[in-house]
Each structure stands twice: as structure tokens, then as C-alpha cells.
């Protein structure tokens, strides 16, 4: 019961953030030098088209009315039209979203699945070689530019060794699975389409790995620090004194208590992951939001870019809300 | 009251102690060395680079690393090593400018919010909340597109997304200081707010800010390179490392050295700054000393 009240309160608190976010994207779209309408319609727009757009966005009216109009258009799902694809930006984003969702989720899972155990091992073997290797990796991992790592992986595993495919979500001759969620891995699993499943898996490995490198390093570093802190607590001594096995002490008592800061950092890391997707997707020709955004940048396709900025930010804000809720669920000490 | 000799004595011992702490931390020594090399490279770029970083030389295009061209040549036949050396100037310039700009804005908002409190605090902190709920790089992307792709605008956009971190930090420090007796005493003696801020708040609040900004340096460099990579930062023919990787991308298969070495330069630089920042934090925050 109380948890629901907390979620509702958090949802209400998100409103000022959303107002702020839209104000900033609105300000950005008004910052553009020159006539934003002429720019957004491209060089071949007729005079009537420009007049029409001008009325639609209320550019002749005062700024606050323009902002309200902007909100009104947003609430109708109108993010403008992409000059490159000639389609509504919202439709474009909807089409490209599943690929990005699949890639970012896969890399987050990869990072969590490996990052937490690596951190635990480092903490347990403090100042021995596994710890040194982990710390070295944590330092190097956050220093590697994600786009450069992607290129290196492409060079080694695609061009030189030829072990893994380098572009796209599937081989050209493989047709995508029946669309249920839009995530190829999940859809092919549901329909027991193994050929497509393994093909999709092979394609996602390189981009997901290059995306997760930084995130995994951060998560393992955080887990290690948090574990070390928890291991000095009295209840760990008590658990050991009770004669519990070291395994139980570490996984049941220490790890569950050290997960709180790790969960927080996972929320922040999703933002890093989304931004990283912009770079990784364009390297691996992954047909997602990131590649769409980079293409939009090269064409100076403003509506598309602002649409992407807005959607990416909203995803980030809501994911952090979810993280806060998980937080409360895993730590009963937190009052909400 | 301590004599002048005593004070200098203590200060020199303090310095010696700091040096001792640095020396005891081999990773920080490595970080400092990398940063020093980077600065030397930037200062003495014309002396170090064997070739003109801008000179186009088509017959020598895409040559692999050799004695004449240490790290190979790029698509226009320019020496990659020389371009990396000159690129260090741009990298440092970006890092310093962005951090200083963000510090300036952050300090202003942080001091205003912390010192005056009340409605001003509430307003400024809500503004930083909103900025902090953005994924940094994506907001910087949007801003740079709106301002027009160039290295100056990329720096401006990064400073705009970066300052809230510092505002938060400074505000926290100011709040800690505000209730201290010496501030009250100063007020009692009739000091103006401006005097208190300049004379007491600033000198007593810089330490955590310095640590944070040294840790941020690497990330700023990373984001700048990322923006350049997607074509929003440095424009050709600027020898910016991220832009060089972007140029070399198309030649990955036939000329692996083209995108590889600029990326290595970025990685080593960021690693250097991170190691230095970590070490600095350990030294300036005595609680972390073991």
C-alpha cells in the first residue's frame, strides 16, 4: 500500500522535471540561428508552407505562448517532420526504438551479470592478484572511448579474424522474426526460431560488448568499494561468529547489503549507455535511435534531433524513477 | 603567536609531506607523468613533430608506420604522429576551457544558493536538478546542433551541461561554512557579504572542487572527442583526436593505424588524468588515507 503511495508521489514529482526538460528542449530549438522554420523545412520549402508552419508554431506570438503551443504539439505526439526521411519524427523514433532497447538492455545485462561478480571477487580477494586485475580494468575501462573500442573490435573480430558479423542486426539473407516485441532475440526465442536467434545473438555481441565495457568497469568498481565497506560491519562479524559458511556470509549478508549504491549507479549508467548507443550504433550500422540521431546530425535535421533528445531524456528520467523504486524494494530500511 | 620561521618551517614540512604522499602512490606518479608529457607535447609541438601536421601529400597517403612516418599517414598523406602531437594542444585547450567555464557558472550559482538560502536556494537547486536529470552527452549534442557544429560551440555546450555538478558541490561547502564562528565574527565586525565570500568562503571551499574538476578532466576530454567523432566538434582539417578517428573510420580495413593511434592517445590521456585525480583525492581528503 505504502509503496504505491510512494510511486504516485514520485510520479507527481516528475512533473517539474518534465516541465524543465521541455523548457530546455524548447529553448534549444529557439536558439538556432536564423529562421528555425526555414531551417526545419529545408531549402525547398514554398512561401505558403513557411507561413503555415509559422502559424502552427505561433512564431508571431510572445515566447510563453510559443512554449505552450510547443507543449500542446508535444502532447499530441507531434514532434515535427524529419527533413531526411520525410516522415513524422515520432513514427521514425517508434520504428528505431526496439533496436536500441535491445542493444542497451543486452549491454546493461552483460555489465550487471559480470560487473557485480567481478567486484565481489575483487573485494573478497582484496590486495591479491584478482583485486589488482579488477582495479586495473576499472581504471582502463572508464578511459577507453566507446567508439574507438567498437572500431578495434570490428577490426579484430570482423576484418581480421572474421569470427563475428560487423554490421546490422541480422545477416542480409535472414528475415527478421515475426514482430511481437520488436526485440529480435526475444521474438525469435518466443517463436522457437533458432536460426534467427543465433544469428541475432552473433550480431549483437560486438556492439553490446563495446557498450558494456565502461559500464561494467564502473559497476565492478562500485561493487568492490561497497562490499569492502560492508565487510567491516559488525553484523558480518556476527554472521561469521554464528559459524555460517563464508559463502553465505558473502552472498547473503554482505552482497545484499552492498547492492544499494550499485543500484543507484546502474540508473545513472543507463544514461551513459544511451549516449554510448549513439556512438556504437553508427559504427556497427545498428538500425536504432542512435544511428538515426547521428544521421539527423549530418543532415542538420533539427526536428529529428530534438525529438531524439527529448525521447532519450524521458527514457532516462523514467528509468531513474524505476531505479528509485527498486531501491526501496531491496532496502526495507529506507523510509518512503 | 607563531613566528614567521615556524610558519615557513611548517609549510615546507607540509610540502615535503605532500611529495612523500605522492611518491608513495605509484599510480599517481604515472598519472602525473602522463599529464606532464601531454603539457610538454602541447608546448613544444613544433619541435617534436617531424612533419607539418597540415601539409597534404597525396603520394604518401595511407602509408603504414615506418621510420619516416612513425605512426603512418592519413588519407591526405599527413603524418599521423605530428597530428597527434598538435592535437594535444586542442585537447588541453578543450579540457581547461570547459572546466573553467563550468566552474565559473557553478561557483556563482553554488555560492548564491548556499550563502543566501531560502527562495534563491530553492530556485537555483531546482534548476540544477533539471540539468542533472539529462544524460549529459545527449544534451550537449542537442545544444551543439542548435548552436552550429564547431569546436567553440561544443565547448560552450559542454560547459552548460557540466556546471550543475559544481554548483551542488560549492553549495554544500558554503552551507558547511556558513554556520562557522569566524563567519559570524566577520559579520559582527561589519564585513560585507562580498567581502565574506571573497575572503572566507572562496579560500575555504576550493579543495573538494579541485578534486572533482581534476577527476572530471578525463570525462570532458572523452565527451569532446565523442562530439568530434559524430561531426559536432572540431571540423577538418583540425588535428583533433576524435575527429581523426572519425576520418580514419572508413579506412579501418586498409589502414588500421589511422583510427587506432589517435584513439590510443585519447585513452592514455584520460587514464593519466584519472590516475592523477584519484591520487589527488586521496591526498587532499585525509579520511581516505590508509
Series of H and E elements of chain A = HHHHHHHHHHHHH
Q: How would you classify the helix and strand content of chain A by structural class?
A: mainly alpha
Rg from Cα of chain A: 24 Å
Name of the CATH superfamily of chain B: MetI-like
The percent range for strand residues of chain B is under 5%
User: What is the terminal separation of chain A in angstroms?
Assistant: 11 Å
Which blocks of ≥5 consecutive residues of chain B have pLDDT under 50? Answer: none
Mean pLDDT of chain B: 86
- Tally of helical runs of chain B: 11
Return the structural class of chain B: mainly alpha
* Oligomer state of the chains in this structure: heterodimer
Name the beta content range of chain A. under 5%
Extended strand count of chain B: 0
**Under CATH, the topology of chain B is which?**
MetI-like fold
The helix tally of chain A amounts to 13
Radius of gyration of CA atoms of chain B, rounded to a whole number: 23 Å
Largest sheet of chain A, in brief, is: none
Query: Spans of chain A with pLDDT under 50 lasting ≥5 residues?
Result: none
Give the averaged pLDDT of chain A, no decimals.
Answer: 85
How would you characterize the largest beta sheet of chain B? none
